[in-house]
Amino acid sequence: MTVDAAGKSFTLPSGPATLCFDKDEFMKKDFQVDKFIVDCRKKAPLETLRDDLDLYLKVVRSAMIELINKDYADFVNLSTNLVGMDKAIVNLTTPLGQLKEEVLSVQTAMDEAIEAVQEKIKQQQEIRHKKAVLQRLINITLSVEKIEKLLGIQQGTESSGSPGHLTGPLIERVATEFNKLQFYVTRSKGHRLVEKVKPRIATITTTLQYSLEGSFLSGLETGNTGMLRQCLRTYALIDKTRDAEDLFREHVVRPHMEQIINDDFLRRHDVSVMFEQVLTFIPDSCSVLNNITTGTSGDIVRGYDFVVNAVFPEIVRNLEIRTSSIFAPGNPDVFHKKYSIFTRFLDAFEQCCVSQASVKRLRQHTSYISIIGKWSLPVYFQIRFQDIAGSFEAALCSGLNSTSGPSEFRLVSSNALWFSLTHCWSDSISLPALTHRFVKLNLQCLSRYKTWLDEVYQDEVSRKTESNYDSKQPSSVPDRLSNPSPTGSSGEQFHRSSSPKPAVTMEVPVRYPISTSQIVSLMSDMNKLSFKIFELFEDTIKPQLNAIGFNNTENVKGALKEGIDAACECRPRFWNMVTEDVIKKCSVFLAQVNDIPRLYRRTKKEVPSKPSAYLSGVLKPLNQFCEEHSAALNDQQKTEFLTHVFAALSQQFAEVTSEVLTSTKKMEESLRRLKKARGGDKEKEKGGGISDSDKIRSQIIIDIKTFLGQVEIMGVQPDLIEGYSKIMALAQESESDMAS
């Protein structure tokens, strides 16, 4: 079913079922020939599309002919039906014009009536407004006269400011009428009559406030809760609650605070005593007002907060004016003590507030913000920063010297770092408001320690790579790795430091190498730091972060971990220095393997049964190192160190042993050829049947097994050592050669 332009529905004729297109596509509003052809080409080739279109065209033509034949009579009668249509249209023109004129005249009359009604409504609104203004002016006049009569004010005379005693109900009546008067005056602002009665209103206001002040102060003095409730209700009624709070502040709070908060009092008492006495004022002098203005009973007068709006601002005023010395940050210890006492005072003061809403108002009060800003926390932190960072920097200047007294750490620098990290969080240093700054200081200390370690390492590398020293210095520097505590002629220990850099002078000082003991102590300290830093975080830093409402503590922990990990990155480099030195000392004795052939070649020695003497020399530096530093090395460090050293020694041992065995084999072959040429047998010893070459091999086998046995004795698995397979292969090869 399709709808044509005239709104009539018709159906396209159906075509054969084999058509490659949908006939309804032709009647769509967005039909496009190009798109239609592209879509059809996806289903059939162009020849098929052309044939189907021709076929459907014939179907459409046939349907059109049938439609014309069906409605032929209507087509023929169409012209007959239109005869006389022009005359009928002309006959309708005149009555339609008359009807139009009548409608326009009615519309004009209606518009005029509407305009007249709107004008009347506007006039009525103006009259109503004027009546309302007039009524308000009348009410103003009546209210002024009524209040003046109640207050006993004579019109045309100045008020003496001391009217007769007004009872509570009378004051409340006056306040109610005065509240109405204020409403009328506000609505009639700018009117000449209002300007005329303003002096009378001012007199009424002064008289009413004077009466209220007298009653309020009298109620405070006598503790008359009924009178106080009446006065507070009246103040609230005339929207003068702040006046009541200011009156209480001026006549009650100020005299008391001026006696307590002053420099003379502080000279006689501690600052904590001053704040304690300040706090006692609230239950002693504010309890009556708090009972009247807070609670759930029906006679509560709401809208007041004397503790926040009267007591606290006066406390702040006296602290800022009369005891400004307590804010001085010059002495950080005194400042910390006073600030801590003050924060505890604030906590206690908040406990005196009647509700959480009152606490919120207190924290948003201008005086609260002002007093917090009086404490120079940035200056205090800067002083602490200079003390902590300065001490730490001074300790770094001592280089890798050992601590003199009992300490968790072996080096002065490591001990100073730990002291700096923990000192930030001590009760005498840390402040909740500066927690973020002390966290940053911890991270800065770790970063400085890492930089210092890099400088120490680079300085040592530079020293080793220098080609020569000043001509005045000895041609060689004593090996301090074998002498951990070098001394000068006076016995004074030499110090080495990389930070800060010394001033450049004409004479270049001798730079002494880092000792093995210093490096081992450094590694021990860094291992302790790597796990103690997390103990510090969990036990100290995290609770303080939670106390200030900071919950994303994992980020802080991650930053500390990143800092200590960065500092520990240098450990492999320093360990290489130690292992290289120990390996160097041990490998010196491996050269004696080359002397084994000399000991057995034509010497008539017995078959070897003991390891060579050089093995004790090879292992002596290693044993000595482990004994000297057993307290500083944990099992894991010791195992890693020995594994690395034995791996290097095994490689060197295998190389020199392989050379000896190869040389022995060559010598044996030469002797065999020589004997054969002379007609003799294999080389024999006169005292037995084993050759000199086999004695050499036997000695090497014993040495290899002894070496590997010592490896196991020292707690290292031989099969985990790089070079173990080479040594074992040499031993097996020697045994095979002996058997052949």
Task: Name the descriptors.
COG_su2_N; two-stranded antiparallel sheet; Conserved oligomeric Golgi complex subunit 2; golgi apparatus; 2 strands; protein transport; 740 residues; transport
Describe the 3D structure.
Residues 19-92 form the Conserved oligomeric Golgi complex subunit 2 N-terminal domain. Residues 470-500 have a biased composition (Polar residues). This is Conserved oligomeric Golgi complex subunit 2. With 740 residues, the chain is an all-alpha fold. The chain folds into five domains: 2-81; 134-228; 253-375, no CATH class; 380-461 and 513-569, Tetracycline Repressor, domain 2 (Orthogonal Bundle); 573-739. The chain is built from 26 helices and two strands. Strands 1-2 form a two-stranded antiparallel sheet. The longest helix is centred in the first third of the chain and has 67 residues, at 85-151. Mean pLDDT is 82; it is low at 158-164, 467-472, 474-509 and 681-688.
